[in-house]
Amino acid sequence: MTTANDIQTPLNSSLVSSRRGLLRGAAALTAVAALGQASRAWAADKDTIRIGYISPRTGPFSPFAEADDFILEQVRKTLADGLVIGGKKYKVEILARDDQSSPDRQSNLAAELINKENIDLMLAQVAIGPNASQQCELNGVPCLSTVGPWQAWMFPLKGEPTKGFKSVFHFFWGLEDIADVYLDIWQGVPSNKVIGSAFSNDVPGNAMGDMKLGMPAAFAKAGYKIVDIGRFPVGADDFSSYIQAFKKDNVEIVTGLFNPPEWASFVKQSAQMGFRPKAATVAKALLFPGGVAALGPRADGMSTEIWWTPAYPFKSSLTGQTARQFADAYTAATKREWTQPMGVVHALFETGIQALKASGDPKDPVKVANALRVMKHDTIIGKLDFTSSGIKNVSKMRVVGGQWRILNGAKPELFITNNKTAPEIPVQRKFELLSIA
């Protein structure tokens, strides 16, 4: 299990010291803010707290914001009577914006919320890049973000894990945490310890799949042989060269970062070419139920990291709901299946609102930022603690290993199978080898 003291492991230290290579193509994130901190005027209405929230409601990253309407409705209902902070009662407004999965639009929306809407706190999803955080740091506005590895948040902002930032904070897992989860899954697989590695040719794929700085480095250190023939282009639909290489080297475990359509192509072609690994543990493609269901019976036994599920033994500090009650309420209201990111987004609001309450003065940006800096808070995804990760301004979140199963011909279900990285989250089923590949 990765702990605060593990921050100096070879994987981490390499990532920290070589972040330029990890973040190729991220230079666009360093654009100068349109208006600086000195020009910012705080909200004229001293009795109203204004919270900005930016997420990808549309565009390719929209599945991460699929539950936004439901979450926002719950949060607004909970805050309908306002917040009493420091003996004073405040109304609360949440200004939600869609960045359309565009980093530039995210940056522009953040500047607008800061300089025109005079928000007191920014909350943001930053899977496409930390542009909202960048604007907040430049303007001295407290910001809390999530849905992106901490490395892909900190290093584009030119931050240092030992120094951190003045106004912006982040919670999520790191690449080292996912490597630990995958190794936990594979320790029970009777294999020849030969891994086939296939990662997409984009910022997250290059970061996660780098042979020296990314997850394969941790796998190699653990005694696995890595077969890697390079990155595949985003949107690829022909993986025959990878499959041929994996067959040639007798690969028994496959890992990588795929979009759902890419993984569907890989799985179909593997079956056609007679490639049958014992385990397939991949990121992103197995995150959402829809992408898994599209694989049909071949999805049975595929494994991945878990951000959150209704089986987590935690409650919301806002609504009092258990993880299961939260998921069931979502399904009842929307007729859709729960998704892993919805727990994380709910925790974003839990923690942001707790910081406002703990500040003693939600209209003072320094006090709100300082409240986040020392925040320890129990949420629906578990405890978030910004004081113990070993990374300034960052809290690690719990992440465990899981496996998709298709039982008795029913729809795919995700079960927690490995919890060495977070023992407080109970295992639901024993991990089993792929039934169909």
Write a concise synopsis of the structure shown.
Helices cover 33% and strands 19% of the residues. The protein is an alpha/beta fold and 437 residues long. It has a seven-stranded mixed beta sheet with strand order 2-3-1-4-5-6-14, sandwiched between helices. Strands 8-7-9-10 form a four-stranded parallel beta sheet, with helices on both faces.
How is this fold's topology laid out?
Elements (H helix, E strand, L loop, with lengths): L9 H8 L1 H4 L25 E8 L12 H11 L4 E3 L2 E11 L4 H13 L5 E5 L5 H9 L3 E4 L3 H5 L13 E5 L2 H12 L7 E6 L3 H7 L5 H7 L3 E4 L11 H9 L4 E6 L1 H13 L6 E6 L4 H5 L9 E4 L16 H12 L5 H20 L5 H9 L2 E4 L2 E4 L8 E3 L3 E6 L7 E6 L19
Parallel strand pairs: 1-3, 1-4, 4-5, 5-6, 6-14, 7-8, 7-9, 9-10
Antiparallel strand pairs: 2-3, 11-15, 12-13, 15-16
